[in-house]
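Lab notebook, bench 4. Still working through the backlog of constructs that have no structural model yet. Next entry is a single chain of 155 residues. Request: give me the structure tokens for it.
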Amino acid sequence: MKGSVALHNKILVPTDGSKGATAAIELARDLLIGGVGEGVTLVHIASIAKEVSDFSIINTKRVDEELVKAKLMHRGRQILVEGQAIFEQAALPVDTLIELCDDPGDRIIKIAQEQNFDLIIMGSRGLSLMKELILGSVSSKVLHKAGCPVIIYKG
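Model written out:
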């Protein structure tokens, strides 16, 4: 629409600690500095299924699910602290959210819908074709199924 400006008041930024996710966080920060948006929430969705699938097929040790969950939550909190620092250096407020689930893409979409986010900005990890076929691409799923605009940022 000519003359209209899209307002993205609530921005959701999923992060997994990768370079692409960090670039997406920096883009969200820059948008806030530029006056686009009023708030950002960083979300880390840890996938137990993905973590277990990353174990070698040869590894026959029994997986302690509670230990895996604790490690995932600890790592997720570290990732969110690093993301928060990017906003705090610019004196900008940021909210965080961490969750465990089996399908991060679906959960990101659900969070965006339930909390009425106007925009999702996420990085592209560039998974190998084989991993993408087996695990599915989180960014691709969010891009195609979210009910709001999505920016896939490759920094």
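Notes after review: The radius of gyration is 16 Å. Helices lie at 19-33, 48-53, 65-88, 104-114, 129-135, 138-145. Flag for follow-up if needed.
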